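Lab meeting notes turned into a lecture example. A postdoc, R.K., suggested we walk through two folding results consecutively so the class can see how the record format repeats. The first protein's sequence and structure tokens come next.
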Amino acid sequence: MNIELTSGKDVDVPEMLKDRIEQKLGKIENRLGQKLFFRVRFDKDKASVERYTCQVHFNSNRSEFNASATEDDLIKSADQAISKVERQLNRFQSKLSSKGRMSIRDTTDLEVDLGDEVEL
């Protein structure tokens, strides 16, 4: 998993928050079963001094996921943005399964072994 974590002017991201983001995005990566590249950006709102925006972006094999959240606290904004991405992923996976298609995870690791025959 690769995470590009950037922060705007006057925004210091604590190490605890970096670990928390890495843990939550790791769960998304495990769920999809593929290596992903995440972009996470933190900015401070220009209109208000104490408002922070977190943007999360990543691409999977079939789709692109974006989420943004603005809160008074840096940690809350990150949690909300990641939960929005998780909801998008839930919606995308349920859409595939309801149409009778395979899930995303099933499509990434297809292996066909035609060399071995099984006797009954």
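The second example is placed directly after the first for contrast:
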Amino acid sequence: MIKHLRLRYRQLKHRKSSPFGRAILTHGGTSSNSSDADGTLSAAQAGMTLMSGGQSALDAVIHAVSLLEDDPRFNAGTGSQRRADKQTIQMDASCMSSDGQFGATACVENVKNPIKIAQGVLLHSTHILIAGDGARLFAQTHNIPTQDSSNTAENDSHQHCPTPACDTVGAVAFDGAIFAAALSSGGLANASIGRIGDVPLPGCGLYCGPLGTIACTGDGEFIALKILAREVYGWLGQPMSAKDAVNKALALFDDSVDIGLIVLTKNDFASRSRNGMAWSQLTAHENSSHEHGDGIT
């Protein structure tokens, strides 16, 4: 209780000094169909509604990502990819806030919303990452909803991802005081059972700090080896604009590597993907807001 009261005090203390009173960006994964930006916009609107009601940026991104997990058009949760055996579905998720909290899960099966387990790890565990059967046991112990059957039915009927690299939905937000990010991935199509990508690794798929927040999507091995999100965050302190940061990030990789990012600071944001991406953003100043649902970046 004391921890939450202190967090709320910091939110109220600093909210008026930020150009963005509140802001949220969502994406449906690199190479996701730009016509599906209605899904990312709905998720952004839901997250913004929570922040407008006084909830935190962390609450907003987790809720937004859970909605993207429920949308079978995206490779996360319900729409996850199958592994090399053409049957197994294993999912990764993570969440982080700029006040130093982090939680993740990896290779979890038969779960509707992996991001809820990542949230549970952040809130209730001394660990930062719990994987596989241990993640399901953790969820059951903490009354986090799971399901008993895999997501194969939805996966069979909705294959909107044009390439196997279409993975990792994400959201970043700022509530006036705290930055937060959340990711969820259905994995790389035909990947080895047990393969873990960048999503649950701190500083790789996502990162938050006082300067802003970053969420990555794309070829996970390449993202992880560059510790990409933390690298991009470092550039923001030079200072570098969000647009220049995403452009520089893509330039780190060969054109054949599918990479996408969303970046948010207190007064700036940017989104870009090598091969297009469904994405949306909402920003709220004192008495105005702006929406963007263009899925081509």
